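Researcher: Structure prediction, please.
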Amino acid sequence: MDLFALMSLDELSLRMSQLSMYPLFDMAHYIVSAMALKEQPGAVDVAFRSPFACWFSSMLYCFGGAILSGVLLAEPTLAPFSNTNNVVLATVIWYFVFYCPQDVFYKCAAFLPLRLVLASMKEVTRTWKVLGGVTQARKHYNEGWFVMIAVGWAKVPLLDLDLPSPSDYDSAPGFARYVYLPPCDSCICIGSFTPLQSSVTGAGGGLMSNFEQLVRGVWKPETNELLKMSYPTKVTLIGAVLFTLQESQYFPLARHHLMFFYTIFVVINKVRMMLIHSTESPFAPLEAVLYHLFFARQPTVTEAKGAAKRNSTAACSDLKVKSAKSHNGSAVHDTNGNISCVHETNENSTDSNDNGDTVSIKTCNKKTD
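Model: Predicted structure follows.
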């Protein structure tokens, strides 16, 4: 495109699309994954009680998306473990995250500037994994859009990294203690280290997380990502749709241009959300409009009448309260304060004279000592 050449982005995007994920970017992904596992409740106890179960859970965190995509395409589920270099690298990182003396490795990786770098590198791998899943599915189903989207969506073992809330104070690892600042609704860590509270999210990682929890003796089906999709799940789904359209020649951008813009988008959003401690999806306004337009439940005639009746009753109650307040000044007391007359004008305090005119009634109460 002339526009890309003019902005000197064509060569930059092409060079970026040729980046190799191994070893640096894969290393960042494994570090983030192992740290995410360590932040799960009870994971540290499992690590010292059953190192093999902890290692297996860590491998599911690192390769869960690839395992699930293999299941969807009826390919060997152990294929992700055929690359010895990646498995050894992930194992070494798992060991240092969980068993390094004085948790030095974890503390260094949790240092905020380095944490931002690792998270950004992790987002770069998201682009490559989504595209890899789409192209992998396209080899088997050339015109199967939904298959390509599903595999591209499931390919990424997504991890959402956020700072802990005040309720997580007691459950944090022993070396991490937080200070809650109500004015800015944020948490900071005493000292130089900012720990991570990570939760597995996404189509691939979210579905595999239920199985991973069973490995650690935990069963929480309500954490299924499909029940409540998070931002990483949504942005990965959008990426799978875009790359599927591009691979099918229905998107007016070259592959490396789409990779460049998608990567920039996810990296900037991830860094922004981590800096402001936000988990709100930037797609929320659009989602609300689409939901109310296509998926919101339309009330039946009976429900609409019931709601109108309730609103009418509430409005009448408000009018009565306002009327009573406006006539508080009509109460009259004698010198001893024994008799009070209140001017009532509601429906129960009116009567009609011989001419049919409505008159108000004064209620007088005798006070006794």
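Model: The beta strands are 159-162, 178-181, 186-189, 197-200, 332-333, 339-344, 350-352, 358-366.
Researcher: Thanks, that helps.
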